[in-house]
Amino acid sequence: MKFVLEVDTSEMRGEGEAAAELGRVLRYWGGNLRHYALEPGDGSVVYDSQYREVGNWRITASS
């Protein structure tokens, strides 16, 4: 299986904002993954600290 995380940082323009938001996404979703079976098809939308949709993560079959 493959874990795929996509985060659009194009709207994160403040100094250090992209790094801070990416760190938050990784911490939050890293801790939240225990609630998923982590099988192909699992996934979720990813939000930033202002609850804007900025991407997603998903589990796919290995290619």
Which properties best describe this structure?
single chain, 63 residues, alpha+beta, 30% strand
Averaged pLDDT, please?
91
Number of domains: 1
User: How many strands, which pairing sense, and closed or not: the largest β-sheet?
Assistant: 3 strands, antiparallel
Find the structural class using helix and strand composition: alpha+beta
Helix-strand sequence: EHEE
Range of strand content? 25-35%
Distance between the termini: 8 Å
Which overall shape is indicated by the principal axes computed on the Cα atoms?
A: elongated
Descriptive notes:
The chain is an alpha+beta fold. The chain has one domain. The chain has one helix and three strands; from the N terminus they run E-H-E-E. A three-stranded antiparallel β-sheet has the order 1-3-2, with helices on one face. A hairpin with a 5-residue loop joins strand 2 and strand 3. It is elongated and about 35 Å long. The termini are close together. The model has no long low-confidence stretch (mean pLDDT 91).
